[in-house]
C-alpha cells in the first residue's frame, strides 16, 4: 500500500469495496484445494500475476492495492495449482469463482492465466503460513498451510526436496519412454502368479508403473499426469531403470525365456543380496551416517527389541471364557467331546477366504507343527517407543515401529522352543506395513503367533534392521546401518510373545494346517495361498 493512504482510507476499503471478502475467498479456495495436505501442489510458469490483477481493477482504486506484501504473495503463491489425479486437469489453488464484485474480473483474469500455465515443479514448503497476514494496521493476502503439507525433514531443505521431486519426474518420464506397456504387463503377470522368487517385493512398483503407462496411453493431459504421479509416488518408485523392476523389464524386452528371466531375478532377489551391502561400509559412509543420525536424533531408534503381543494390531485373538476356573474347570464333558469331532479330510482354502469365512467365528485356532523347517518369524520393535521413526511405515502421526525377520531357508520348530503337533495360536496379525493405508507396496504376509514360541537362535543374529524396511533418508548410509545391526542384539527376549509362523503373500503354501474350534464344532483347514 502507498504510504500516503490513511487509516480512514483503510476503513473505507474494508467496509465498502469487499477487500476482506477477497481475502476470505482466497483462504477458502486454498483450504478446499489443499485439503488435508496429503495431495501435492505444483508450481506453474505463470508470471506477472499481480500486474494482471491490478490491470483489471477500476483505475481509480488501483492505488489502494499497489502493495509490495500482497505482490510478493501473488507472485510466489498465486501461480500454484493442484492436478486432478484422474483427469490431469489443473486447477488454481488461490483463485476461486466467488470473489466480491469489485475483484471479480481481476480474479477471473488471474485464474485463467494460471489455469493455462505450464507446470514446472512440485511445491514444497516448511512454512505454516504462506504470505504475511498483517503488517501494522494493514491486512494482506495470506493462507494457512495444512499440517500434513508442512515439510518436517531435518536433513533436507524445501529446495532440496523440490529438486528431488523434479528428478523423480525426469526419471519417470525417461522410464515411460523406455519401456513398452506390453513388457510391463508381462512383468506384472509373472510377479502376480508366483513365477518369480520374492516377486512381492517389487510387485507394488510394477503395478504402479503399469497404471502410469495405461494412463499415458490414454493420451489426455499426459504432461500433468506424469507430474502428479511422480510427486505422489512412494519413495523410490520413479527410479524404474535403476531398480530391480528395471532389470526384470530389460530381461523381458531382451527376449530371454521365462526360465532364464526367473533364474536371473532369483539371483538378484536372494535375501542375502537384495538391497544388502556386500562389503564393509567405507569410512566416508560411516561419517555420513553419524551426521544423519545426529541431525535426525535417531541414536535411540536404532536399538530394537522383541515385540509383545499386547503391542500389536491383531485381526484375531482367542475368545476368553467368562466362566471362573473352578477345581473341575479343565474336565472335558461328553457334550464338548461331541462338538469337538474333527472333520476329515481338511478343507483347503485361501487365506482371504479363511479370513472372511472362518476367522470371525473361531474361538480357538491351533497350528500343526510338523517338525520340518518352516517360515518361523519374530516381530520386533523399537526399544524406545518415543524415539524418532526410522521404519518406512512408521510416522510421527501414526506410530508403527514394527518389522520382522525370518531365517533364510526357514528354521526348525525346536529353534523356537516348539514341539511337534498342534500348538495354540495366540493371535493372527498382518505384517506391520499393512496396519496403515499407503504401504501395501512393501509386500504382504500374515502371522499366526504361537503359544510359547521364542527364537532360541537370536544371540549373534543382529537386531533385524534391514535396508528394505528403512526410511528413504537412511538409504544412502544403509551399509553402515546394516553393519551396526549385525553386531547389535535384540532386547526383551524374556518378554517376547510375538513369534510364530509367517505365511507370505504371492507364494504357494504347502502343508499349512490349522485346527479351528467354533461354537458348533472343530474342523481342519489347509491354507494353500493368499488369494
How would you describe what is shown here?
- Helix 10 (244-253) packs antiparallel against helix 11.
- The protein has 3 domains: 7-149, no CATH class; 159-268, no CATH class; 283-320 and 336-527, no CATH class.
- It is 34% helix and 17% strand.
- Mean pLDDT is 90; it is low at 1-8, 10-16 and 335-340.
- It is elongated and about 90 Å long.
- The chain contains 15 helices and 18 strands.
- The protein is of the alpha+beta class.
- Strands 9, 10, 11, 12, 13, 14, 15, 16, 17 and 18 form a 10-stranded mixed beta sheet that branches. The chain has a 4-stranded antiparallel beta sheet with strand order 3-2-1-4.
What keywords describe this structure?
531 residues; 3 domains; disordered N terminus; single chain; alpha+beta
Count of distinct strands: 18
- Based on CA atoms alone, the radius of gyration comes out at 29 Å
Largest sheet: 10 strands, mixed
**Helicity, as a percent range:** 25-40%
Shape: elongated
Determine the strand fraction and express it as a percent band: 15-25%
Mean pLDDT: 90
Terminal Cα span: 66 Å
Uncertain ranges? 1-8, 10-16, 335-340
> What would you call the structural class?
alpha+beta
Amino acid at each position: 500500500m502507498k504510504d500516503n493512504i490513511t487509516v480512514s482510507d483503510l476503513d473505507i476499503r474494508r467496509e465498502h469495496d469487499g477487500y476482506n471478502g477477497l481475502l476470505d475467498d482466497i483462504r477458502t479456495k486454498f483450504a478446499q484445494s489443499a485439503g488435508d495436505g496429503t495431495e501435492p501442489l505444483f508450481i506453474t510458469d505463470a508470471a506477472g500475476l499481480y500486474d494482471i490483477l491490478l490491470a483489471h481493477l477500476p483505475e481509480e482504486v488501483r492505488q489502494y492495492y499497489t502493495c509490495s506484501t500482497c505482490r510478493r504473495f501473488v507472485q510466489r503463491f498465486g501461480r500454484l495449482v493442484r492436478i486432478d489425479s484422474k483427469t490431469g486437469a489443473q486447477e488454481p489453488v488461490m483463485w476461486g469463482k466467488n470473489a466480491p464484485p469489485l475483484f471479480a474480473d481481476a480474479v477471473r483474469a488471474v485464474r485463467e492465466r494460471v489455469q493455462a500455465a505450464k507446470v514446472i515443479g512440485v511445491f514444497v514448503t516448511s512454512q505454516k503460513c504462506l504470505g504475511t497476514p498483517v503488517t501494522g494496521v494493514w491486512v494482506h493476502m495470506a493462507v494457512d498451510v495444512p499440517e500434513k503439507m508442512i515439510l518436517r525433514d531435518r536433513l533436507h531443505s524445501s529446495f532440496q526436496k523440490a529438486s528431488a521431486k523434479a528428478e523423480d519426474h525426469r526419471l519417470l518420464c525417461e522410464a515411460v519412454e523406455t519401456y513398452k506397456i506390453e513388457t510391463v504387463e508381462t512383468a506384472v503377470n509373472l510377479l502376480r502368479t508366483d513365477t518369480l522368487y520374492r516377486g512381492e517385493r517389487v510387485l507394488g512398483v510394477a503395478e504402479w508403473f503399469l497404471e502410469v503407462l495405461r494412463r499415458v496411453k490414454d493420451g489426455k493431459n499426459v504432461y500433468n499426469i506424469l507430474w502428479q504421479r511422480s510427486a505422489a509416488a512412494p519413495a523410490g518408485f520413479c527410479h524404474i531403470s535403476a531398480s530391480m523392476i528395471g532389470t526384470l523389464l530389460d530381461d523381458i524386452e531382451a527376449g530371454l525365456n521365462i526360465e532364464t528371466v526367473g533364474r536371473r531375478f532369483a539371483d538378484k532377489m536372494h535375501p542375502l543380496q537384495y538391497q544388502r551391502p556386500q562389503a564393509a561400509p567405507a569410512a566416508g559412509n560411516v561419517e555420513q551416517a553419524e551426521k544423519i543420525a545426529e541431525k535426525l536424533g535417531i541414536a535411540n531408534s536404532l536399538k530394537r527389541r522383541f515385540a509383545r503381543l499386547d503391542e500389536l494390531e491383531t485381526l484375531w485373538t482367542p475368545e476368553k471364557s467368562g466362566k471362573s476356573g473352578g477345581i473341575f474347570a479343565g474336565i472335558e464333558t461328553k457334550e464338548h467331546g461331541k462338538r469337538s469331532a474333527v472333520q476329515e479330510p481338511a478343507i483347503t482354502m485361501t487365506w482371504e477366504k479363511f479370513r472372511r469365512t472362518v476367522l470371525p467365528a473361531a474361538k480357538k485356532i491351533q497350528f500343526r507343527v510338523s517338525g520340518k523347517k518352516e517360515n518361523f518369524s519374530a516381530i520386533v520393535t523399537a526399544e524406545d517407543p518415543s524415539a524418532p521413526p526410522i521404519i518406512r511405515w512408521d510416522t510421527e502421526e501414526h506410530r508403527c515401529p514394527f518389522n520382522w525377520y525370518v531365517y533364510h531357508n526357514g528354521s526348525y520348530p525346536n529353534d523356537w522352543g516348539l514341539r511337534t503337533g498342534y500348538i495354540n495360536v495366540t493371535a493372527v496379525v498382518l505384517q506391520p506395513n499393512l496396519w496403515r493405508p499407503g504401504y501395501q507396496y512393501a509386500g504382504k504376509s500374515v502371522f499366526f503367533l504361537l503359544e510359547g514360541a521364542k527364537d532360541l537362535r537370536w544371540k549373534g543374529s543382529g537386531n533385524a534392521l534391514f535396508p528394505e524396511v528403512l526410511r528413504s533418508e537412511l538409504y544412502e548410509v544403509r551399509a553402515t546401518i546394516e553393519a551396526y545391526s549385525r553386531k547389535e542384539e535384540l532386547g526383551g527376549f524374556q518378554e517376547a510373545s510375538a513369534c510364530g509362523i509367517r505365511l507370505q503373500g504371492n507364494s504357494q503354501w504347502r502343508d499349512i494346517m490349522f485346527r479351528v474350534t467354533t461354537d458348533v464344532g472343530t474342523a481342519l483347514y489347509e491354507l494353500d495361498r493368499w488369494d
